[in-house]
Amino acid sequence: MNNKHQALPEHELLTHKSFIRNLNLFDWAFALLIAVGAFIAQTQAGLHMDIYEMVILWASAGIAVFLGWFFKPMRWFIPVGVCLAYLAVDLYGGDIKRADGFLLKYLLSSQSAIMWQCAFVFFALFAYIVGAMAAVRKNVPSNTLLGMGTVFAWVSAMAGFVGLLVRWHESYLLRPDAGHIPVSNLYEVFILFLVITALMYLYYEGRFAVQKLGGFVFSFMAIVVGFVLWYSVSREAHAIQPLIPALQSWWMKIHVPANFIGYGAFCIAAMLGIAELLALRKEDAGKKSWLPHSQVIEEVMYKAIAVGFLFFTIATILGALWAADAWGRYWSWDPKETWAFIVWLNYAIWLHLRLVAGWRGKVLAWWAVIGLIITAFAFIGVNMFLSGLHSYGTL
Hints:
With 395 residues, the chain is mainly α. The chain contains 13 helices and no strands. The longest helix has 34 residues, at 294-327. The radius of gyration is 23 Å and the shape is globular.
């Protein structure tokens, strides 16, 4: 009888390296760079910041570090964007009249950067659509045009990111006592939406190799760009205005960005819902679809909704805390609050049906598409057609 002990195979959880141990020298260098940047920002602007804003600054630095660790391209995206914004700040030299300088006028002023963002959204859309058509014709998963679409998408996100940072500085140049984070009106939050949606899509594109879906996401983004351009020309919305009293709160700095991470994710999910319906139509007919398999599309859609639901929940909680601070009560069933709850409930049911009931396929795809319509009404429609405590974001 053999009494030798046979070595048992180790469970993968015991052999798998932790997230922290997987970090390399570049990851830690990036974290140090962000920490130094946050320290410099606090040193230069600390006299104008209260304790809450300092907490937000360092929390934002922590989030930036995590993003760089989790989504590697952010390790260059964030530093490059901050450096370009700092260059613009340096070119201004504390005087808004210097905006007529060549670099500011054509590249780095907030309005110039945002216009470049809008242009590159259309460039990306064209490259994604034509690239997908060429890939289908040659029966290849990717090609140069699709790669150009990815590059253009990154450039659009970078331009919007820089534009928002510079616009923040410009608000202080115009009125030192009334400067504010650029998320106070429809024009500014739509720019934020375009940046967030582009970055989220680029993450999913790299994670799941779904370049052919870029045309769907950027089609909706192009519609948003059209609105931004119309709104800028017809309403002069690009002009920086002082905050109305209702928005003069540090809660705005965290509530609005969290909300728009949710909106961006729901937008991506809806566009992927359309793509899944098209893929299912081909698959049900026994034909090969030019799109990724419907199961892959649905997996990305599910992850987008899960992320969006998480951040929308956080934003709703933050909004309730803001309401208690501003109006003395957490919830008043104001039309905006009511429709926010409807949006939250819609995606909560979607996730329940997928995770618990095991639903898949067309119903959830259609649900995601309709969910975007509900979300759009909650964001814009309520302000246009219903009056309430939140009636300060009308067209």
